[in-house]
Amino acid sequence: MKILYCNCTYAKVVPLEVKKDVLRRLSDSGQAFDAVADLCDMSARKDPALNKIASGGCTKIAACYPRAVKWLFHAAGTPVPDEGIKVLNMREDSADNIVRELLT
Fold first, then answer.
1. What pLDDT score does 84 carry?
2. Per the structure, how many domains does the chain have?
3. Which of 4, 27, 32, 101 has the most other CB atoms within 10 Å of its CB?
């Protein structure tokens, strides 16, 4: 399982406390994960790293709305597969729920 954490640095749409708590608990868990500053920015720049993420097998992404994340990848020319990637919504869900889903 691969975990990707988006800090949503530029959009500032995810509650700060949720982002901080999820990141801290992921770091404390000992589970390997990747963190990016902002998927929106990566999509706008058509960052090639998005292709690696999209084709990397079973991945869990902590970011914002699942439909938005999928469209960010699509807009960058690297659509995510219909199965194998789960997007967790830090914008609306609690840090407890996000971390539980990421680590199971």
1. 84
2. 1
3. 4
**pLDDT average, residue stretch 20-42:** 96
Under 8 Å CB-to-CB from 27, ≥6 apart: which residues?
none
Written as six digits, the tokens of 95 are: 């840090």
Q: How far apart are alpha carbons 80 and 53 in whole angstroms?
A: 8
d(CA 87, CA 67): 9
Percent pLDDT > 90 in the chain is 79
Distance of alpha carbon 41 from alpha carbon 21, whole angstroms: 22
Burial of 32 (0-12, 13-18, 19+ CB in 10 A): exposed
Other beta carbons less than 10 A from residue 28's beta carbon = 9
**Contact by Cβ (8 Å): 25, 33:** no
Domain that holds residue 57: 2-103
In Å, how far are 1, 52, 55, 57 from 22, measured between CA atoms?
17, 23, 24, 22
- Beta strand 34-36 pairing with 85-89: unpaired
